[in-house]
C-alpha cells in the first residue's frame, strides 16, 4: 500500500522544463537542479542565477538555458525534485506507525497497559522521524525557503501542497485503521505539531529541547488515541 500511495503522489508533480531523453542528458539535467538546491541552501533564492548554477554544476552555461527557459522555471523544477524526494521519506513515518499498530492487532486498546504500549511506540516513531528531519538540516532549509517563495508563486504553491498532502494522507490512513471518528482532523493536528517541533528544534530554541518535544508528542498522541478508543 505504501509504495502505491507514494507513486500516485509523485505522479502529481509536473516538471516544467525541457524533458531529457538520453541517460547522460537526464544526469546533466538533474545535476543542474541539484546544484540549484545547493545554492538555495547557501545563498537563498536570490543566489539562483544561470552563471552561478552552471559553475556549481560544472556544466556549460548554455546547458542551463537549454533545459530551462528562465530562472523561474528552473527554480520550480528544483523544488519539484526536492518534493519528489521528500515524498519518498514519508514512507518511513507511515511504515513505523502501521508497524506499531500491527504489533497490537486484535488487542484491547482500552486496556491501560496495551494503550500505554501503543502510545510509547507511536511517540518513539514520531520522535525518530523528527530527529531524522532535523539532522537533514539542508533539506529543511530548502523546504522552508521554497514554502516562503510559494506564497508569491502559484506554480510553486501547487507543488508545495503535494508532499504535505502525502504525509497528512498517511497519518489519516493510520487513524482510520485505529477507528478515529475524525481521522482527517486528527491527522492535521499530528502533522502540524510535528512541523512545529521540527522548526523549533532547527532554530535551536532552548524552550523546545528534545525532552520537551518528546513530552509534548507523547501527550498529544495519548489524548488523540484516547478519543479514538473511547466508546
List the main descriptive attributes of the protein structure presented here:
Tetracycline Repressor, domain 2; single chain; 0% strand; 10 helices; disordered N terminus; 79% helix; 231 residues; mainly alpha
Q: What's the CATH architecture of one domain? A: Orthogonal Bundle
Shape: elongated
Kindly report the name of the CATH homologous superfamily of one domain: Tetracycline Repressor, domain 2
Q: Give the percentage of residues in beta strands.
A: under 5%
> Count of helical segments?
10
Report the structural category.
mainly alpha
In total, the number of strands is: 0
CATH class of one domain: Mainly Alpha
**Poorly predicted runs of 5 or more residues:** 1-8
Sketch the topology as an H/E string, one letter per element.
Answer: HHHHHHHHHH
* Helix percentage range: over 70%
N- and C-termini, Cα separation: 29 Å
Main β sheet profile: none
What is CATH's topology name of one domain? Tetracycline Repressor, domain 2
Keywords: DNA-binding
Organism: Simiduia agarivorans (strain DSM 21679 / JCM 13881 / BCRC 17597 / SA1)
InterPro entries: Homeodomain-like_sf (IPR009057), HTH_TetR (IPR001647)
Protein name: TetR family transcriptional regulator
Amino acid at each position: 500500500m505504501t509504495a502505491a500511495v507514494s507513486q500516485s503522489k509523485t505522479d502529481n508533480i509536473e516538471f516544467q522544463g525541457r524533458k531529457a531523453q538520453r541517460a547522460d542528458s537526464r544526469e546533466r539535467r538533474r545535476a543542474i537542479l541539484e546544484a540549484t538546491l545547493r545554492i538555495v541552501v547557501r545563498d537563498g533564492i536570490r543566489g539562483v542565477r544561470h552563471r552561478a548554477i552552471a559553475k556549481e554544476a560544472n556544466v556549460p552555461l548554455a546547458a542551463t538555458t537549454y533545459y530551462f527557459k528562465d530562472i523561474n522555471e528552473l527554480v520550480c523544477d528544483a523544488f519539484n525534485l526536492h518534493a519528489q524526494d521528500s515524498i519518498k521519506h514519508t514512507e518511513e513515518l507511515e511504515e513505523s506507525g502501521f508497524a506499531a499498530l500491527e504489533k497490537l492487532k486484535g488487542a484491547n486498546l482500552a486496556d491501560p497497559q496495551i494503550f500505554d504500549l501503543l502510545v510509547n511506540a507511536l511517540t518513539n516513531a514520531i520522535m525518530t522521524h523528527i530527529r531524522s528531519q532535523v539532522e537533514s538540516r539542508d533539506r529543511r532549509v530548502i523546504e522552508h525557503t521554497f514554502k516562503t517563495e510559494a506564497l508569491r508563486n502559484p506554480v510553486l504553491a501547487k507543488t508545495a501542497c503535494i508532499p504535505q498532502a502525502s504525509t497528512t494522507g498517511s497519518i489519516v490512513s493510520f487513524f482510520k485503521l485505529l477507528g478515529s471518528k475524525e481521522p482527517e482532523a486528527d491527522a492535521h493536528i499530528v502533522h502540524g505539531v510535528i512541523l512545529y517541533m521540527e522548526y523549533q528544534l532547527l532554530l535551536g530554541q532552548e524552550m523546545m529541547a528534545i525532552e520537551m518535544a518528546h513530552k509534548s508528542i507523547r501527550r498529544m498522541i495519548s489524548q488523540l488515541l484516547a478519543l479514538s478508543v473511547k466508546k
